[in-house]
Protein backbone atom coordinates (compact mmCIF):
# COMPACT_ATOMS: atom_id res chain seq x y z
CA UNK A 1 0.00 0.00 0.00
CA UNK A 2 1.39 3.39 -1.00
CA UNK A 3 1.65 5.75 1.95
CA UNK A 4 -0.39 8.93 2.13
CA UNK A 5 1.56 12.13 1.53
CA UNK A 6 1.50 14.42 4.55
CA UNK A 7 3.03 17.79 5.32
CA UNK A 8 4.27 18.61 8.80
CA UNK A 9 5.88 21.11 11.17
CA UNK A 10 7.96 20.24 14.22
CA UNK A 11 7.60 22.82 16.99
CA UNK A 12 9.31 23.41 20.32
CA UNK A 13 12.83 22.92 21.56
CA UNK A 14 13.37 20.74 24.63
CA UNK A 15 9.86 19.24 24.56
CA UNK A 16 8.71 19.01 20.95
CA UNK A 17 5.52 18.15 19.13
CA UNK A 18 4.75 17.59 15.45
CA UNK A 19 1.76 19.12 13.66
CA UNK A 20 0.56 17.11 10.65
CA UNK A 21 -1.37 18.80 7.83
CA UNK A 22 -3.96 16.54 6.20
CA UNK A 23 -5.81 17.02 2.94
CA UNK A 24 -9.31 15.53 2.58
CA UNK A 25 -9.28 11.72 3.04
CA UNK A 26 -5.63 11.69 4.15
CA UNK A 27 -4.83 9.71 7.29
CA UNK A 28 -2.03 9.61 9.81
CA UNK A 29 -1.58 6.79 12.35
CA UNK A 30 -0.21 7.28 15.86
CA UNK A 31 0.47 5.56 19.14
CA UNK A 32 -2.55 5.54 21.44
CA UNK A 33 -2.47 8.62 23.67
CA UNK A 34 0.03 10.58 21.56
CA UNK A 35 -2.48 13.11 20.18
CA UNK A 36 -2.04 16.67 21.51
CA UNK A 37 -4.82 18.47 19.61
CA UNK A 38 -6.84 18.19 16.41
CA UNK A 39 -8.69 20.82 14.45
CA UNK A 40 -12.12 20.84 12.82
CA UNK A 41 -12.79 18.10 10.28
CA UNK A 42 -10.44 15.53 11.80
CA UNK A 43 -12.06 12.27 12.88
CA UNK A 44 -10.27 9.44 14.66
CA UNK A 45 -10.80 5.72 15.10
CA UNK A 46 -8.87 3.29 17.27
CA UNK A 47 -8.04 0.14 15.34
CA UNK A 48 -6.22 -3.12 15.91
CA UNK A 49 -3.62 -2.61 13.20
CA UNK A 50 -1.71 0.03 11.27
CA UNK A 51 -3.90 -0.15 8.14
CA UNK A 52 -0.97 -0.91 5.81
CA UNK A 53 -2.63 -4.17 4.76
CA UNK A 54 -6.36 -3.40 4.46
CA UNK A 55 -7.21 -6.90 3.23
CA UNK A 56 -5.72 -8.55 6.32
CA UNK A 57 -8.35 -10.64 8.11
CA UNK A 58 -9.17 -10.85 11.79
CA UNK A 59 -6.49 -13.47 12.42
CA UNK A 60 -3.85 -11.27 10.81
CA UNK A 61 -4.93 -8.31 12.91
CA UNK A 62 -4.76 -10.41 16.06
CA UNK A 63 -1.23 -11.50 15.18
CA UNK A 64 -0.23 -7.89 14.60
CA UNK A 65 -1.77 -6.88 17.93
CA UNK A 66 0.02 -9.73 19.70
CA UNK A 67 3.39 -8.67 18.26
CA UNK A 68 2.82 -5.08 19.49
CA UNK A 69 1.94 -6.42 22.93
CA UNK A 70 5.26 -8.32 23.00
CA UNK A 71 7.14 -5.10 22.22
CA UNK A 72 5.45 -3.44 25.20
CA UNK A 73 3.27 -1.11 23.11
CA UNK A 74 -0.51 -0.76 23.10
CA UNK A 75 -2.25 -3.30 20.85
CA UNK A 76 -4.27 -0.42 19.36
CA UNK A 77 -3.23 2.27 16.90
CA UNK A 78 -5.27 5.44 16.39
CA UNK A 79 -6.11 6.56 12.83
CA UNK A 80 -6.75 10.29 12.26
CA UNK A 81 -8.48 11.22 8.98
CA UNK A 82 -9.45 14.56 7.49
CA UNK A 83 -13.14 13.99 6.72
CA UNK A 84 -14.02 17.61 6.03
CA UNK A 85 -13.26 19.91 3.12
CA UNK A 86 -9.95 21.69 2.75
CA UNK A 87 -6.91 21.14 4.92
CA UNK A 88 -6.85 20.50 8.65
CA UNK A 89 -4.28 19.70 11.31
CA UNK A 90 -3.60 17.21 14.07
CA UNK A 91 -0.63 17.32 16.46
CA UNK A 92 1.25 14.67 18.40
CA UNK A 93 3.53 15.17 21.40
CA UNK A 94 6.45 13.08 22.58
CA UNK A 95 5.87 11.34 25.95
CA UNK A 96 9.04 12.76 27.57
CA UNK A 97 11.51 15.64 26.96
CA UNK A 98 13.52 15.22 23.82
CA UNK A 99 13.51 15.51 20.05
CA UNK A 100 11.18 14.36 17.28
CA UNK A 101 12.93 12.96 14.20
CA UNK A 102 11.17 13.09 10.81
CA UNK A 103 12.21 10.24 8.51
CA UNK A 104 11.33 9.84 4.85
CA UNK A 105 11.26 6.04 4.59
CA UNK A 106 11.54 6.13 0.80
CA UNK A 107 14.98 7.75 1.22
CA UNK A 108 16.07 5.13 3.77
CA UNK A 109 15.59 1.92 1.82
CA UNK A 110 11.88 1.85 2.76
CA UNK A 111 12.67 0.47 6.23
CA UNK A 112 14.33 1.42 9.50
CA UNK A 113 14.75 -0.36 12.84
CA UNK A 114 13.90 1.56 16.02
CA UNK A 115 13.80 0.87 19.73
CA UNK A 116 10.42 -0.38 20.82
CA UNK A 117 9.14 2.88 22.37
CA UNK A 118 10.48 5.28 19.72
CA UNK A 119 7.58 5.31 17.23
CA UNK A 120 5.30 8.36 17.51
CA UNK A 121 3.25 8.64 14.29
CA UNK A 122 3.41 8.04 10.52
CA UNK A 123 1.51 8.43 7.29
CA UNK A 124 -1.11 5.75 6.63
CA UNK A 125 0.53 2.95 4.66
CA UNK A 126 3.46 2.61 7.04
CA UNK A 127 3.79 -0.93 8.37
CA UNK A 128 4.81 -1.35 12.00
CA UNK A 129 6.07 -4.80 12.88
CA UNK A 130 8.13 -6.63 15.47
CA UNK A 131 11.81 -7.07 14.59
CA UNK A 132 13.69 -9.87 16.33
CA UNK A 133 17.39 -9.17 16.69
CA UNK A 134 19.25 -12.20 15.35
CA UNK A 135 22.00 -11.79 17.94
CA UNK A 136 20.91 -13.27 21.29
CA UNK A 137 23.54 -11.25 23.14
CA UNK A 138 21.91 -8.06 21.90
CA UNK A 139 18.65 -9.29 23.33
CA UNK A 140 19.85 -10.21 26.79
CA UNK A 141 22.28 -7.34 27.37
CA UNK A 142 21.41 -4.54 24.93
CA UNK A 143 19.37 -1.54 26.01
CA UNK A 144 17.28 -1.95 22.87
CA UNK A 145 16.55 -5.57 23.71
CA UNK A 146 16.03 -8.63 21.60
CA UNK A 147 12.77 -7.18 20.29
CA UNK A 148 12.82 -3.98 18.24
CA UNK A 149 10.30 -2.37 15.91
CA UNK A 150 10.56 -2.23 12.13
CA UNK A 151 8.94 0.65 10.22
CA UNK A 152 8.37 -0.05 6.52
CA UNK A 153 6.86 2.11 3.80
CA UNK A 154 7.47 4.93 1.36
CA UNK A 155 6.12 7.89 3.35
CA UNK A 156 6.94 9.98 6.39
CA UNK A 157 7.43 8.45 9.84
CA UNK A 158 8.20 10.27 13.07
CA UNK A 159 10.17 8.84 15.98
CA UNK A 160 11.14 10.51 19.25
CA UNK A 161 14.32 10.44 21.29
CA UNK A 162 15.38 11.66 24.72
CA UNK A 163 17.52 14.79 24.89
CA UNK A 164 19.50 15.79 21.81
CA UNK A 165 19.66 13.65 18.67
CA UNK A 166 22.98 12.83 17.01
CA UNK A 167 23.04 11.39 13.49
CA UNK A 168 25.92 9.34 12.10
CA UNK A 169 26.31 8.18 8.51
CA UNK A 170 28.42 5.02 8.62
CA UNK A 171 30.54 4.10 5.61
CA UNK A 172 31.87 0.76 6.70
CA UNK A 173 33.00 2.05 10.11
CA UNK A 174 32.17 0.68 13.55
CA UNK A 175 30.44 2.90 16.12
CA UNK A 176 30.43 1.91 19.81
CA UNK A 177 27.57 3.36 21.83
CA UNK A 178 25.96 3.10 25.25
CA UNK A 179 23.22 0.53 24.68
CA UNK A 180 20.40 2.83 25.77
CA UNK A 181 21.49 5.67 23.46
CA UNK A 182 20.58 3.87 20.23
CA UNK A 183 17.27 5.22 18.89
CA UNK A 184 17.25 3.63 15.44
CA UNK A 185 19.25 2.63 12.40
CA UNK A 186 18.79 1.66 8.78
CA UNK A 187 17.88 -1.95 8.14
CA UNK A 188 21.23 -2.91 6.60
CA UNK A 189 23.24 -1.81 9.68
CA UNK A 190 24.55 -4.65 11.83
CA UNK A 191 23.63 -4.19 15.50
CA UNK A 192 25.63 -6.13 18.07
CA UNK A 193 26.67 -6.13 21.74
CA UNK A 194 30.25 -6.30 22.98
CA UNK A 195 31.89 -6.32 26.42
CA UNK A 196 32.84 -2.89 27.76
CA UNK A 197 36.55 -3.13 28.61
CA UNK A 198 38.10 -5.07 31.48
CA UNK A 199 36.34 -6.27 34.62
CA UNK A 200 37.13 -3.16 36.65
CA UNK A 201 35.86 -0.86 33.89
CA UNK A 202 32.73 -2.95 33.42
CA UNK A 203 31.73 -2.86 37.08
CA UNK A 204 32.85 0.59 38.21
CA UNK A 205 33.29 2.58 35.01
CA UNK A 206 29.69 3.80 34.96
CA UNK A 207 29.21 2.82 31.31
CA UNK A 208 27.49 -0.50 31.98
CA UNK A 209 28.68 -4.02 31.33
CA UNK A 210 28.21 -3.91 27.57
CA UNK A 211 28.31 -1.46 24.67
CA UNK A 212 26.32 -1.54 21.47
CA UNK A 213 28.30 -1.76 18.24
CA UNK A 214 26.88 -0.64 14.91
CA UNK A 215 28.66 -1.56 11.70
CA UNK A 216 28.03 -1.19 8.00
CA UNK A 217 26.75 1.43 5.59
CA UNK A 218 23.81 3.63 6.50
CA UNK A 219 22.43 6.10 9.01
CA UNK A 220 22.26 5.71 12.78
CA UNK A 221 20.24 7.90 15.17
CA UNK A 222 21.41 8.31 18.78
CA UNK A 223 19.90 10.05 21.81
CA UNK A 224 21.80 11.92 24.51
CA UNK A 225 19.35 11.16 27.34
CA UNK A 226 17.69 7.72 27.33
CA UNK A 227 14.54 7.66 29.46
CA UNK A 228 16.07 5.04 31.79
CA UNK A 229 18.95 7.41 32.64
CA UNK A 230 16.53 10.26 33.28
CA UNK A 231 14.48 8.08 35.63
CA UNK A 232 17.63 6.92 37.44
CA UNK A 233 18.77 10.49 38.04
CA UNK A 234 15.36 11.63 39.26
CA UNK A 235 14.83 8.62 41.52
CA UNK A 236 15.46 9.11 45.26
CA UNK A 237 18.72 7.57 46.44
CA UNK A 238 20.46 7.71 43.06
CA UNK A 239 23.24 5.16 42.96
CA UNK A 240 25.78 7.53 41.37
CA UNK A 241 27.32 8.54 44.72
CA UNK A 242 27.38 4.91 45.89
CA UNK A 243 29.08 3.92 42.64
CA UNK A 244 31.75 6.60 43.12
CA UNK A 245 32.48 5.52 46.70
CA UNK A 246 32.62 1.85 45.64
CA UNK A 247 34.98 2.71 42.80
CA UNK A 248 37.24 4.65 45.16
CA UNK A 249 37.33 1.74 47.58
CA UNK A 250 38.28 -0.69 44.80
CA UNK A 251 41.03 1.63 43.58
CA UNK A 252 42.46 1.83 47.10
CA UNK A 253 42.43 -1.95 47.43
CA UNK A 254 44.06 -2.45 44.03
CA UNK A 255 46.76 0.15 44.71
CA UNK A 256 47.62 -1.15 48.20
Characteristics:
256 residues; Double-stranded beta-helix; seven-stranded antiparallel sheet; 5 helices
Question: What's the number of helices?
Answer: 5
Distance between the termini: 68 Å
Mean pLDDT: 80
Q: What is the CATH topology classification name?
A: Double-stranded beta-helix
Q: Can you tell me the number of structural domains?
A: 1
Helicity level: 10-25%
Oligomer: single chain
Strand proportion: 35-45%
Quick one: CATH superfamily? Mitochondrial biogenesis AIM24
- What is the overall silhouette? globular
Tally of strands = 17
Instruction: Tell me about the largest β-sheet.
Output: 7 strands, antiparallel
Give a verbal description of the structure.
The protein has helices at 58-70, 136-141, 199-204, 227-234, 240-255; strands at 7-11, 17-22, 27-31, 35-38, 42-47, 77-82, 88-93, 98-104, 111-114, 119-123, 127-132, 147-152, 156-162, 165-178, 182-186, 190-195, 210-223. The protein is of the alpha+beta class and 256 residues long. The chain has one domain (7-242): Mitochondrial biogenesis AIM24 (Double-stranded beta-helix, 4-Layer Sandwich), CATH 3.60.160.10. Strand 1 and strand 2 form a beta hairpin. The N and C termini lie far apart (68 Å). Mean pLDDT is 80; it is low at 240-250.
